[in-house]
Amino acid sequence: MSGAGRALLLITLIFASAPLWAEPPASAVVAADDGYAAMARRSGEWTATRAVSVPQSEMFVPRRVKALEFGKGLPDPKVATRWRAQQAWIACDGSVGATFGRWSIPGTRQRGWYEAIWGQTGAGAYKLLLRHAGPLDRRLLSRPGRKGMRAACGGHPPPLPIVAPAVGTDFRMGASRDQTLIWSSGVSAQGDVRIAISLWDGTTHVPVLEDVAPAGTAR
After folding, report:
1. Residue (of 211, 206, 187) closest to 136 by Cα position
2. CA pair distance 89, 113, nearest whole angstrom
3. Which residues are within 8 A (CB) of 2 and not within 5 positions of it... i.e. 6 or more apart?
4. 3-class state of residue 194 by DSSP
5. Domain annotation for the chain: domains and CATH numbers
6. Which phi and psi (to 5°) does residue 116 adopt?
7. Mind giving me the DSSP string for 121-188?
């Protein structure tokens, strides 16, 4: 697939030079992602997905679906997908975090990318709110180690902006409780999926990930 076929933009200027585990809240989100991956290997992929999902959890197949409704009763594949987060972002208050990483299926040449949004429950655990994944069609930006970034805690983040999506686009937005991490997901009339994540830097919301995948590439 040509570079125009799938656009993936990862803005990395805001990443700290410290490893991810130096930021306890960010590493907690990655721990949730890692735990999900480990459960998939141990108990089965759909079993794990049902365990970490809540009623509002969404995925794209390629249209937007509720994870629990779509995955109800689906058998686990014989070989579970393996994945690992490489980058993570988290709100100042820790209520919402996001991960980006790679996946592969052992014994095959199938591999790809994914991003996930995680929401913190009242008990402090993280549950999956959104997951978007697709096949790897070109080399992704690679950085050594696992990197994370926490939103700034100062200033006064504004509420979610009002967005007028294109006609026929299934568009939704969400934010952390403190509005320091915002994300949006949109499915165009043609089936293209766009995920965007921004973090508050104390003055404005700075884009940290924008992923646009054409119809038919969701996994």
Report:
1. 211
2. 16
3. none
4. strand
5. 8-213 (3.10.450.50)
6. -140, 145
7. -TTS-EEEEEEEEEE--SPPP--SS-EEEE---SS-PPPPPP--PPTT-EEEEEE-TTSSEEEEEEE-
pLDDT in tens, the chain (219 residues): 333 333 444 433 333 333 333 445 578 899 999 999 999 999 999 999 999 999 999 999 989 999 999 999 999 999 999 999 999 999 999 999 999 999 999 999 999 999 999 999 988 899 999 999 988 865 455 445 678 899 999 999 998 888 889 899 999 999 999 999 999 999 999 999 999 999 999 999 999 999 888 876 666
Per the document, the length of the chain is 219
Burial 33-54 (b: 16+ CB within 10 A, else e): bbebbebbeeebbbbbbbebbe
Closest CA to 35 of 99, 108, 91, 93: 99
**Residue 73: phi, psi to the nearest 5?**
80, -5
Q: Which residue has the tokens 């058998």?
A: 75
d(C-alpha 196, C-alpha 94), whole Å: 19
Q: Are strands 7-10 and 96-104 parallel, antiparallel or unpaired?
A: unpaired
